[in-house]
């Protein structure tokens, strides 16, 4: 039996995932939570095989939550579940330690197969995403730059794109301001820009906001 914990702040989403997973006799939902603090409380009480984690869960962002889980609960496998741009965030979350990434726009049938694959320690991304990551189409040119970025750089870029100043980015990611400045300089180099306005334009092209 595969034990699953669902972490998403939308009750209707949690209910929907539960309904889909209940169709599989070898999957058991042992808990569902709506915030990261509830998630870590639950992980101290129960031992899921797979956590289905929403990218934008409140309190700590999904990638930071994923890193914390990898440190504190290394045996738990994470399937990221998000409405965010699949091309951008799938790679980022997998680099940060997720075993799979599922878009909220994906076919419902994928949820069961994703949970099963991740529980076995295998990587899961949809065939469509695998194809898009394998081939650069002309319209996806900005995403080619993205592949050069680390998951931490993506986090910094996303926060800058949301209007945060260096100090706020530093506080949000538990870094010092100097480190954030270094990340910003590195982002500008990798995305081939020389000012913040163009950097944010690239973030927009990458669908980060």
UniProtKB/TrEMBL annotation:
Coiled-coil parts of chain: none
Response regulatory domain sequence ranges: 3-119
UniProt key word Transmembrane: no
SUPFAM superfamilies: C-terminal effector domain of the bipartite response regulators, CheY-like
Domain of life of the organism encoding this protein: Bacteria
Pfam families: GerE, Response_reg
PROSITE patterns linked: HTH_LUXR_1, HTH_LUXR_2, RESPONSE_REGULATORY
Name of the protein in its database record: Response regulator
Organism, as annotated: Flagellimonas marina
Upper classification of the organism: Bacteria, Pseudomonadati, Bacteroidota, Flavobacteriia, Flavobacteriales
